[in-house]
Design goal:
By secondary structure, the chain is of the alpha/beta class.
Amino acid sequence: MTLPVVAIVGRQNVGKSTLLNRLTGKRLAIVEDLPGTTRDRIAAKVSWQGTPFSVVDTGGLEIKPGTDLGKMVKAQAEAAISEADLILFIVSVEDGPVADDLEIADKLRKASKPIVLVANKADNPARQASAAEFYRLGLGDPAAISAHHGRNTEALLDAIVAKLPPAKPEPEKPEVMKIAIIGRPNVGKSTLLNALVGQDRSIVTSQPGTTRDVVDSTLDFS
């Protein structure tokens, strides 16, 4: 079946990859304190209360990136937003609403997609109460959670499932072959992936180590 898609978006270092790992119960995305760790889109399947859906993690969204790499990360995030049935907009209660959050909120409203505002890093009752500051974004009730500790993530999953369209049945497909592209840095692995799938699925630069996470994609060659 074709699963509904949930895109996780927000500025750098608000806990998007930590939330992906929490929702999937696996360490799929690399998590570091270093801003900008995630660059490509990372997709994974999640099921909650019998409802399956696909979750897509993205790099930190900058409205006006100052580097070519930042522009490519933004393009990947925008692709995820375009394909999503639901957007999880992640903000940090540690920082409170900042200018970038307001700009991203404006951008997401223009996408005309359902949005769940997620106030992350609410590790204790005091931080949870401070999530009320995010009402100023105009996106409804903020879901105060701690992705790192798992605080209130079950309630978040309930909110996600309540807003999702049902999965669509599709013709049964044969088993797919799994192929891994490996090699040392800067030999063209991501360029090869993009050439095979016919789209910019992975960010490509001349900088070694641009790709950090595992990037999955489906290729139908017939």
